[in-house]
């Protein structure tokens, strides 16, 4: 499968050659629906899911919308429902809008595991696995406070309101900023587009030349924020803390365009998702909620084994 082709060498030595190596008609089918195509966080998450699927002998199919948008993800969920997989792993792109389509597939007997993002009402899922995003947002506030010397004006740059990860990271950041005495000048959304993130940051800086820091809540927001500051020639004045550690972000950290990254355990979320789905299918005990941690990566610890392991793969 595509997902496996992108997964690098870590599990190549198992000799596994995708689902076709598995059993015949009786083999269980698991579908993973990610938030968006081409996003290294989800690519890495899918690799973790694939290695666990190989280990447990289940078939994994990965599907991704072209944009991070509930109106693009919903038809995919509906098409997956028609194929009646045994289990669905999904990262809902909206806390409310994806409820009905996911409920429909759950009611038809597919076991649902929410990975990365969640729903306002998660009663349709047997398990939810996600980074502790609220804590991640607080960690971002601490990192930014350190970088700007403890006080000053900061901008919160989200990617999409109504997505659980963004909402929780933002809440954690706001609470952390308040506790630490940072002055939040505003919250804006980049629609998961680096270009939009870049122009938001340039406009914010033009409005407020005193701006000292930006927290960008995901990889695309962070990538664009860094580009925007470089274009405004303001990379020395304004510090950026970004969520995620994709290849472009790591490069920007190395170049000093971004000062800290809050990295997730992307592959682990995928691995645990398949593990919990198979436990549910086997009638074994399932963990309703699993929180995974985050790692703050800076130039200082960028080469540590822990930081390297937390980076997403292309
Ligand atoms: O930050 C991740 C993910 O956790 C979030 O839900 C959506 O954006 C990413 O995929 C990064 O691009």
Q: Strand fraction band?
A: 15-25%
- Identify the bound ligands: alpha-D-tagatopyranose
* Spatial separation of the terminal alpha carbons: 15 Å
Average pLDDT number: 94
Radius of gyration, Cα only, in angstroms?
20 Å
Q: Order of SSEs, N→C? A: HEHEHEHEEHEHEHEHEHEHEEH
Taken from the alpha-carbon principal axes, the silhouette is elongated
Low-confidence stretches: 10-22
What's the helix count? Answer: 11
Q: Please provide the count of β strands.
A: 12
Helix content: 40-55%
The largest sheet, given as strand count, sense and whether it forms a barrel, is: 6 strands, parallel
| Broad structural category | alpha/beta
The largest beta-sheet arranges its strands as: 2-1-3-4-5-11
Short key terms for the protein model shown above:
six-stranded parallel sheet, six-stranded mixed sheet, elongated, binds alpha-D-tagatopyranose, ABC transporter substrate-binding protein, SBP_2_dom
Write structural notes for this entry.
This protein has 314 residues and is an alpha/beta fold. 42% of the residues lie in helices and 20% in strands. It has helices at 2-5, 40-56, 70-82, 99-107, 133-147, 164-180, 194-207, 219-231, 247-254, 266-282, 305-309, and strands spanning 29-33, 59-63, 87-90, 111-115, 127-131, 152-158, 182-189, 211-216, 239-243, 260-264, 289-292, 294-298. Strands 2-1-3-4-5-11 form a 6-stranded parallel beta sheet, with helices on both faces. Strand 8 (211-216), helix 8 and strand 9 form a beta-alpha-beta unit. Helix 2 (40-56) packs parallel to helix 10 and helix 3 (70-82) runs parallel beside helix 4 (99-107). The radius of gyration is 20 Å and the shape is elongated. The two termini are 15 Å apart. The structure holds alpha-D-tagatopyranose. Residues 35, 39, 41-42, 116-117, 163, 165, 218-220, 243-244 line the site of alpha-D-tagatopyranose.
């Amino acid at each position: 499968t595509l997902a496996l082709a992108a997964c690098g060498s870590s599990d190549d030595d198992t000799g596994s050659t995708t689902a076709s190596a598995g059993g015949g008609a009786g083999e269980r089918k698991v579908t993973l629906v990610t938030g968006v195509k081409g996003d290294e966080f989800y690519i890495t998450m899918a690799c973790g899911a694939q290695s666990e699927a190989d280990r447990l002998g289940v078939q994994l199919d990965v599907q991704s919308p072209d944009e991070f948008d509930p109106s693009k993800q919903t038809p995919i969920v509906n098409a997956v429902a028609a194929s009646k997989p045994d289990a669905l792993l999904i990262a809902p792109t909206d806390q409310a809008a994806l409820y009905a389509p996911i409920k429909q597939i759950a009611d038809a007997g597919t076991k649902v595991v929410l990975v990365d993002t969640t729903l306002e009402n998660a009663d349709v899922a047997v398990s939810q696995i996600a980074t502790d995003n609220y804590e991640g947002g607080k960690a971002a506030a601490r990192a930014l406070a350190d970088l700007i010397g403890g006080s000053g004006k900061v901008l919160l740059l989200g990617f999409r309101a109504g997505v659980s990860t963004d909402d929780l990271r933002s809440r954690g950041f706001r609470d952390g900023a308040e506790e630490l005495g940072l002055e939040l000048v505003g919250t804006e959304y980049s629609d998961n587009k680096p270009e939009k993130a870049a122009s938001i940051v340039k406009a914010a800086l033009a409005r407020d030349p005193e701006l000292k820091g930006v927290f960008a809540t995901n990889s695309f927001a962070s990538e664009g924020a860094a580009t925007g500051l470089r274009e405004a020639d303001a990379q020395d004045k304004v510090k950026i803390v970004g969520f995620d550690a994709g290849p472009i972000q790591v490069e920007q950290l190395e170049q000093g365009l971004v000062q800290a990254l809050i990295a997730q355990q992307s592959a682990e979320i995928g691995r645990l998702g398949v593990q919990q789905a198979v436990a549910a299918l086997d009638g074994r005990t399932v963990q309703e909620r699993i929180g995974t941690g985050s790692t703050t990566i800076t130039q200082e610890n960028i080469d540590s084994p822990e930081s390297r392991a937390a980076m997403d793969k292309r």
